[in-house]
Amino acid sequence: YGKCLRLFLSVIWLSFVSTQDCKVNGPVQDLNVDHTGQRSFQVSWRAPEGAIGCFLEYSICVHVTGMEEEFCETQNSYRTSWSSTQGVLPCTNYTVIVAAIDSNRNRSDNASVTLQTNSICDEGYANVSSSTTQFNITELESCTPYSVFVTSVGPEETTSIPAGSRFYTEMLDGPGPVANLSLTAVDSVSATVAWNVPEENPSCASLYNLCISENGTDGETCIKQDGSKLQWENISPLQPCTEYRIEVTPIDFNGELTEGSSIMLLTVNVLPNTTEYNVTNLLACTNYDITVKSLGSSIQESRNKTVTSYTDVQDFPRPVRNLFAGAIYDSIFGGATLGAEWVAPEDLTCIQHFRVCNTKLESGEETCVQVDSSVTQLSIGIPLDFCSNYNLVITSLDGNDKSYGEAAVQVATSPGLVTNFTMIDSGYKYLAVSWDISMPTDYCVEEYKISWCLSSSQECPSRPYYTLPANTTVLNITGLNTCTTYNVFVTAIGNGGLGSLESNIFAKSGGGDNLGAVSNLSVSSISTNMAQVTWERPAYLEACVDKYVVCLKNDVTQKVMCDSQTGSYTQWYSGPTLSACINYTVQVQAQDYSNKMGGNATLTFFTGKNNQ
């Protein structure tokens, strides 16, 4: 009775409040922007300070910032928030003005807030003739705002202040129905539903119209919600053990309702003699908390008893498809790792992870990693053993690690890289190479493949291969050009024809013992203390010349000085080291890449007299 009495007295007291004393003393308080979308926004505020029971309504006016034209509407004083419903453009600044109106039609001071709707603004431009006064803009997106600016360009590229206008493109078709409307929570007095954006023209949906009605009745309750929010939370109060119909309909930017989607829900309540209940309309492969409590005759509640249950899937998803795996070899460090790629199942509703396990068949040693269901390729960084066989298995798992099928493939590894690959000898039109194979993998080598080509040749990729027995690690390569650099390759071949990565060296064939002498040795310049001599390369085995050795002898003191220089230079300069009026003998010899010397060429010259 106390509650009823206080309510009664309150009503009586309010009925005697004089409208003459009711006056708004100031603007609304704390006007804020709650959220913005591309084509919608919401603002909220608090009532003016010190005013009680005086408000008849609120006035809300909206205009594009900087423009005079505005849209206004009023709403009841018990509502202190407002959402835009139509005509809102993305990427646009709006000013919202809110004022309170009392029962005497007095208006409070304005409170205002400025906001910008969301979007990403793309730019483009075109130059047109000065005689053109209209222009067709094409290839625009529907349901999208655009700003157009026109600027006059004068002499020397001077420009006027741009004149601008805003517009939005029309819809070819409105947004389609929402996708995947589902019930995410329900109890005896409330429920929550969620959905995804429409699959057709989702950018044309600015708001959602949310309606609920008791099944079999005509009464319906609807609200509007911003297009960026994809769930209707805590729909209440509902009646226990009652079936409801919920409909979600997109609203386009013109404020028009499009096609709706609906779902039925039944609030939960069971009779005292019932000990089981079927919960329906749940999502597959999802954890749900189910709470049971007993109610007394006066709606007294017992403590909650909650159990977590996981829903199953109606159609068993397929395992991954087109699984491919292979060893990835490191040409620098010589190791190997496993790489794999696959195609995910078409239905990933229940699959949240893939477990990838690689097992060495010879030892049973297993390595496993778990990746997200969005991953379709993977490199397992743990090193593989050479000359081994592995079994790779990929298992599809849900959130509780329940398996939904697996796919498998076997991978074999090759021998390791050959080691110590080097040239051990060279001679006239031949060279000799040798190599080793690492001990852990020598048992599985069945043969070697070796090949070579000129280091400057463009035909190296198509060079022929020669096969050698597994016990052969030395090879004399004959029939080569003299003193020529070759690129030599060797590969170890194991079980099943699997080859290691190629190892290669650059090696140069020799020129024999017949390197000729230089020709046309002469003095090109001479003075009292310096001289310069020149010559031509040997006529025979010219390509074998690696360097030249030049020796200079003082014929008076018999002192000999020798110097060497690269084979690409055919002249030598003594520097200011000679004495005047002395006979000198110079000797030049060519030397090949194996340090064998060619014939001698000598010349004697006399330095000039010192005029001092």
Automatic annotation (TrEMBL):
InterPro entries recorded: ECM_Regulatory_Proteins, FN3_dom, FN3_sf, Ig-like_fold
Position of the signal peptide: 1-19
Domain Fibronectin type-III: 27-120, 177-273, 417-513, 517-611
Presence of the UniProt keyword Signal in the record: yes
Keywords, ordered alphabetically: Repeat, Signal
Highest taxon listed in the record's lineage: Eukaryota
Name used for this protein in its record: Fibronectin type-III domain-containing protein
Organism: Timema bartmani
